[in-house]
């Protein structure tokens, strides 16, 4: 069979292969194999590397062998120690967690496990040589160092730790470790005397200062007969769990266990069965707050007037039309820990709502009598028993923003007011950005003393995240002034 030397191909072909393989996170050699396989199967990809589907969906051979599409990738450096046999199990454990694993074996590691075994388990080619012409023509060690989410060294021998601590790069493993900008997880394995040696102690301390994360070593029996102590490599499952914690750190959920009620959108106040009074509120800000509170772990009830938005995931949404229906749903949602009233509730409704469509008559316009709607915010803020510990209102103003917002806060009895200028020139109504001021009563201050925190212009999502962060800190502090 003829062999193909990639180095000798035309420059244009080499460039194409380099771009395409980098995009698909394969070695150039593997990419050529994929292209040939696709040609034979009659489903070749388009000739521009930028039109190639992402690796996860285009990597047919990998997909056939793993049950799920990989979500993260690890470069696993296997050092030369007897614990290297556990790294074979580690490959499996990582792949079970939907992690793609590309392995590098040091020269010494090959005394303990073979590239063939590692390749069979990882379903990828194995890298062993810094000066491998096939992978190095496109700086393979740099790709191995950076085209991954995490580097795991297992076993991390005393020698590898020393090289890494001192910045050596005389083989593929140490060159990758020096060239990476990814987090490095080290699973040391060595004889207890080596682990306790002053040089290793210094190296470990240096590596920790440099930001490397260590798992183990555990204490127990050594491979050497009759020796025991600290130095056994952690079990594969422990290393895989540590890798998973670094790859998918737990999301902070500061509002876990809290119930948050939010109103959003306009209300529609019927004139007759086909007409209504409304306003220009889009509901975007309230919906963004609901999504941010849900992401922060809260149980969220969103009472929304008519809007053209999808319900945020994981949020209980009550759809209403009028102010009175909104009040009903808000009352039904109590008790809650936090209530945020972002809805643009119509101040008035038609007292004499027509049962049938109002007709034009020669007598002129039908007389529409308006009556005031219930003020939902004020009603809830002034409750004697079920008042939520933190009640937040919004003030959409077109003039005297801060002064109007302060008097609104006092009049309605809420704890904070989020004030925003909605004059047409700002584009806030229906737009995606908002400039807000958070106004609160100062802790322990006399009536009429307020704290004003002005935020820069932000997207409505950013305003929501910022507001929820203030809420989370304040709810935990049990203070009513926004904790900064
Ligand atoms: O009085 P104004 O409409 O400016 O007050 C704005 C604040 O009061 C907002 O938080 C809004 O949701 C709330 N509000 C209410 N019920 C009303 C009117 C306003 O909850 N009827």
Describe this structure in words.
The protein has 484 residues and is of the alpha/beta class. It has three domains: 7-48, no CATH class; 70-247, Flavin prenyltransferase-like (Rossmann fold, 3-Layer(aba) Sandwich); 259-350 and 367-477, CoaB-like (Rossmann fold), CATH 3.40.50. It is built from 18 helices and 21 strands. The chain has helices at residues 11-23, 28-41, 55-58, 60-65, 84-96, 115-122, 133-136, 140-146, 158-166, 172-179, 192-196, 198-209, 236-247, 284-295, 323-333, 376-381, 401-412, 460-477; strands at 72-78, 99-105, 150-156, 183-188, 213-214, 218-221, 228-232, 259-264, 269-270, 276-277, 299-304, 316-319, 338-341, 348-350, 370-372, 390-397, 416-421, 433-434, 436-441, 450-454, 458-459. Strand 16 (390-397), helix 17 and strand 17 form a beta-alpha-beta unit. The termini are far apart. Bound molecules: cytidine-5'-monophosphate (C5P). The site of cytidine-5'-monophosphate (C5P) has 14 residues, from helix 16 and strand 16. Residues 263, 323, 341, 343, 345, 347, 373, 375-377, 393-395, 408 line the site of cytidine-5'-monophosphate.
